[in-house]
Amino acid sequence: MRSRKRVLAGAVCGLVLATGGALALTPVAGAAEGAIVQAKRHYAPGMYIVVLEEGGAATASASAIEATSADLARRYGGELSSVYTATLHGFAVRDLSEKQAKRLAADPAVRTVYEDGTSAARTCRPTRPGAWTASTSGTGRWTASTSTTPRARA
């Protein structure tokens, strides 16, 4: 009689552990979602540029940025395509659904998620001597020049 109780108790414990393990591996239905900055015209669906939150261990060095980028891309189901370690700290990822991208945007290590695409600038003017100017013509070509002439102060 005792051995039957032990077998039954063992089977119940095994079932509970197996079910609990399976439940722990399934994603939470109500996982947090963040906002994505939409592009005016995007290159292809599923491509995003991710900017990491500054000031933590994730952006302390180029190798930390690379490791964090690879981890986030893998964790949210995308494929890492580029890592940015100089001008901005972040990465480009592809093959993400919009829902996966929104979940990535809600991650505490992420500052902003941008849909990869194009935007248009009409004119940029220098704010100080030596700054650059750029404008687009009707053909969509960029022209740029630098100015070394100081502006007169008002």
Keywords, please?
26% strand; five-stranded mixed sheet; three-stranded antiparallel sheet; single chain; 2 domains; disordered C terminus; 10 strands; alpha+beta; Alpha-Beta Plaits; 154 residues
Short note summarizing the structure:
The protein is an alpha+beta fold and about 150 residues long. Helices cover about 30% and strands about 25% of the residues. It folds into 2 domains: about 35-120, Alpha-Beta Plaits (2-Layer Sandwich), CATH 3.30.70.80; about 125-145, no CATH class.
Structure, explained:
With 154 residues, this protein is an alpha+beta fold. It has 2 domains: 36-118, 2-Layer Sandwich (Alpha-Beta Plaits), CATH 3.30.70.80; 123-147, no CATH class. Strands 1-6-3-5-4 form a 5-stranded mixed β-sheet, covered by helices on one side. A 3-stranded antiparallel β-sheet has the order 8-9-10, with no helix packed on it. Strands 2-7 form a two-stranded antiparallel ribbon. The protein has helices at residues 2-25, 62-75, 98-105; strands at 36-37, 41-42, 48-52, 79-84, 90-94, 110-115, 117-118, 123-124, 132-136, 142-146. The termini are far apart. It is globular and about 35 Å long. The protein has 3 helices and 10 strands. The longest helix is centred in the N-terminal third of the chain and has 24 residues, at 2-25.
